[in-house]
Amino acid sequence: MKPEDTSRPTLQDQRFFMPPRTELSMVPFGGPPTADLPEWGGVARAPGLKFILHPPLHFEIAYRIPEYLIFTPYARAVVDVSVKDGPVRQQAWPAGSAFIVPPETTIRARMADPVEFLCIAVEETRANSVFERTARGRPWAPELIADFSDPGFTALQLEIRRSLLGDPLVEPTYLEALADGILARIGCLLAGSNIGTRTKEAISPSTLRRIVEHIEAHLGEKLVVEELARAAGLSRSHFTRAFQSAAGESPQEYIIGRRLCRARDLLSDTDRGIAQIAVTTGFSSQAHLSSTFKKRLGVTPARYREAFSERRAKGRDGDQ
């Protein structure tokens, strides 16, 4: 039998631990900023990345580091924060949201009620490489994002925690992939909002997120571009141009795409009739859904559903 190769370091060589409280050296909120984050709680590394899983203990810090810093809590966190030595403000982050800080930005933070959270420090060259690929030629610029909320980000955040705490097979390469996924989600926002252009056609990240959430919540209803524009505080023409620049397609095309995604979910996971799915997803009729589905996806809703039924039937046959 070939002897086991133990020369390659894995995360098991950097086992997570929760140090005694006395080992958590604080960086005073009002003191000189540290240039390197204290390694509270469990720490793991991968090329260009450092993961710090902080236990639910009180902390305060002042820092200014050369890396991007992503702070994301696993329960609602209330933190006193000062950015670039500006006024101290109390901010609340829901579980799964994030505070994203560009390199060389002075931050002072003090948590009121301790909760478990994750910090990811990302070397600038690695983060910028992901942002460039995500932007696909669109302009972008590093920007402090005070409250990032995104379902894809939250799923990745939870998977990182699970991997760090309980996955015996976890490897640095897997954590790298998860971190790059997180950076790609952030990059979509940076490029989608055209933060770097600062033109009058730009739409802010918070406004874009609010409009997208409104669309998702009302897909089965009539969505009028004029009403979306009013919600964004813009004229119809300005809103249409800004949305196109941010999302890469017009508001009407985006809405159709989201309705088709919802219809695909219902076709594959439920037994609802196609006519009912058409109404639920905001299409005027079954014929409208069918023609749009065929045009966009190259297959009818009925055939799409049949494909999933066939797979389920094969799966049952294989289990017998």
Automatic annotation (TrEMBL):
It comes from the Bacteria. PROSITE patterns: HTH_ARAC_FAMILY_1, HTH_ARAC_FAMILY_2. Residues 209-307 form the HTH araC/xylS-type domain. It holds the Pfam family HTH_18. Keywords: DNA-binding, Transcription, Transcription regulation. The keyword Transcription regulation applies. InterPro entries: AraC_XylS_family_regulators, Homeodomain-like_sf, HTH_AraC, HTH_AraC-typ_CS, Tscrpt_reg_AraC-type_HTH. Gene3D superfamilies: Homeodomain-like (1.10.10.60). This is AraC family transcriptional regulator. It comes from Roseobacter sinensis.
